[in-house]
Amino acid sequence: MNAAQQNPAPEALSKARLRLWLRLLKASGEVEGELRRRLRAEFETTLPRFDVMAALARTPEGLRMSEISERLRVSNGNITGIVDRLVQEGLALRVAVPGDRRAMVARLTPRGQEVFAEQAHAHEGWIDALLGGLDAEALAEMTRHLEQMSTHIEKERG
Fold first, then answer.
1. First CA to last CA distance, the chain
2. What letters, b where the CB count within 10 A reaches 16 and e where it falls short, cover 65-84?
């Protein structure tokens, strides 16, 4: 590797970062699109609904709508509609928060936990298949680079 390759000009580095960003978007979009397709085909569900159920599965004591929204980075309105449907289907329930009569948390019912466990198992298999072209070393290296990028973004945010 020559000196120019080791220390590219700022403009070249900027262009390389832009190309990387576009590749990240493309890869992420491809994986997300395939997950959406498979969730719809195999479970007649959506990725946002799967994400809400995943958040509730990770927090058995339940979450307020605002907490789900914050974790998933979507609006409360979107979450409320999804939770309403989960409740109607017997997959989730709303429970009053002790000491705050106005506040409610959503949690999965036992049936909701079973349904989600089946979906999560399939989801893990799909991710494994979609990323199957990466060996252990490539996975570790990409993970390290993505963590490094996230750390830098957090610093830039202030």
1. 35
2. beebbebbeeeeeebeebbe
Structure tokens of 132? 């199957």
The tokens describing 138, both together, are 């490539």
Count Cβ neighbours within 10 Å for each residue of 124-141 and write b for 16 or more, e otherwise: eebeeeeeeeeeeeeeee
* Contact between residue 123 and residue 117 where contact means Cβ atoms under 8 Å apart: no
- Give φ, ψ of 7 to 5 degrees: -125, 75
CB 108 within 8 A of CB 91: yes
Question: Cα separation of 25 and 31, whole Å?
Answer: 10
3-state SS class at 7: coil
What is the band of 102 on the pLDDT scale with cuts at 50, 70, 90?
confident
Top-tier CATH class for 25-133: mainly alpha
pTM (two decimals) = 0.86
pLDDT tier, 2 (very low <50, low <70, confident <90, very high otherwise): low
Placement of tokens 């999965």 in the chain: 108
* Token pair recorded at residue 45: 């569900």
